[in-house]
Amino acid sequence: MEEKMNRLYGNVLNKLYEGADIENLIVATYLVGAEQDEDPILKAASIGIEQTTGSWADVACETDEIREKYAAKTIGVYEVPDFELKKDLDKTLSEGDMRFFIMRIGFPVINVDDNLPLFFATVTGNIMSMPYLKLLDVDFPKNFVKKFKGPKFGIKGIRDLLGVYDRPLLNNMIKPCTGYSPEVGAELFYDAAVGGVDIVKDDELIGGDRAFNKLEDRVKMNMAAAAKADAVKGEKTLYTVNITDEVSRLKDNALRAIAAGANAIMVDVFGIGLSALRDLAEDPRVNVPILAHCCYGGAQSVGKYQGVSSVVLTKLTRMCGADIILIESPWGKFDNLENKYISRVIACTGDLYDMNTSMPFMGGGVVEGLVPVILDRTGNDCLLGVGAAIHGYPDGPIKGAKAFRQAIDACMNGIDLEEAAKENKELAVALEKWGVYGKDDISKNYLI
């Protein structure tokens, strides 16, 4: 007998989780808005077909055999709230209101393998032109992840390089962000490093060679400043030089920086692309840690009904080899949600098969008075990213860095910051100027 059922409803495209080949499916979770009269089962199947074997109309060679092997599979469709009765739906929604669904759709790994551009074409692709569609998360099977090498160093490797195991690490971004000479930068570098900073980074706005600040000059002068500071403070300093550039120049920048003495590098990951990060990280000649700055990532993630969740982008950045990943603090100058921040930290540090962890790096207006809340939510395996609160400290960056180390020491010893400030004058000045989270309005510090 001829099958009369609409095949978009059939078992070829719609699977129970228990009946799907989960080990060979990349399962994407979407938030999808639909008009009241739209069928969500058909909408999910249509999304899956559009991104795999078919189009808006059946085509002759798209057989059930092809669909079974290569078409996306709907794993689940869940309405929020979870209506069961039509009368409840009719009572709850007014004319013109939309219905919202969580849709889990599995894409065969065989369609993508470890081709990241093709991954984005498949899992986001044309459907991102639809209104009310956001990629919330991706469950990556081991069959997909196994070809990605991930971070070379990770949290343990960074700590091994620095010889610091018992506290969070401290980073400083050189300020001003750009427009300065290598000589000026080296002076700022030394002051931050000798004051107790573990890692000094270029700002995201001064990548590669600039007319006023050449890459190799910057590396040589800053590494000389690091050596000088290390001899004074008895600790090691890493310098993450920003090599961001056109992809055709990126690898050369990395190798030139390392040859000039760089002991770490950084990239603006969403400017160069995840595949370019992966190419750097998986090259054995790039034998130093890589810091990934997340600028431009917000353009993809901040829409509440559109785009790609920052958690997905963080997970992919780790898979592509970033040893350190910048995550904006929700308590500083950016309006990020705390739960999303914590989810991104988990994406850096949670088990991802046997892949190395990435060190979460908190930036965005971090001041001494935020250290307790950051450590409470994040733990000690993190890098505190501080720019203006060191270089804008009233008594100069050396004391600004010392104030942060005093705040860290107080937290590690369970001492209230204001109590610690009674015996640490640098910390006292910082708390007076920037305030303490939970007591003062920290947002007053920021121009944005």
Radius of gyration: 25 Å
In the CATH classification, which architecture of the largest domain applies?
A: Alpha-Beta Barrel
**Quick one: biggest sheet?**
8 strands, parallel, barrel
Task: Please give the CATH class of the largest domain.
Answer: Alpha Beta
Name the CATH superfamily assignment of the largest domain: Ribulose bisphosphate carboxylase, large subunit, C-terminal domain
First-last Cα distance: 68 Å
Which secondary-structure class do the elements indicate?
A: alpha/beta
What fraction, in percent, of the residue positions are helical? 25-40%
Strand order of the largest sheet: 5-6-7-8-9-11-12-13
Report what the structure shows.
With 448 residues, this protein is an alpha/beta fold. The chain folds into 2 domains: 7-145, 2-Layer Sandwich (Alpha-Beta Plaits); 154-445, Ribulose bisphosphate carboxylase, large subunit, C-terminal domain (TIM Barrel), CATH 3.20.20.110. The protein is 40% helix and 17% strand. Strand 11 (324-328), helix 15 and strand 12 form a beta-alpha-beta unit. The protein is globular and about 80 Å long. The N and C termini lie far apart (68 Å). The model has no long low-confidence stretch (mean pLDDT 95). This is Ribulose 1,5-bisphosphate carboxylase. GO terms for molecular function: magnesium ion binding; ribulose-bisphosphate carboxylase activity. Residues 23-144 form the Ribulose bisphosphate carboxylase large subunit ferrodoxin-like N-terminal domain.
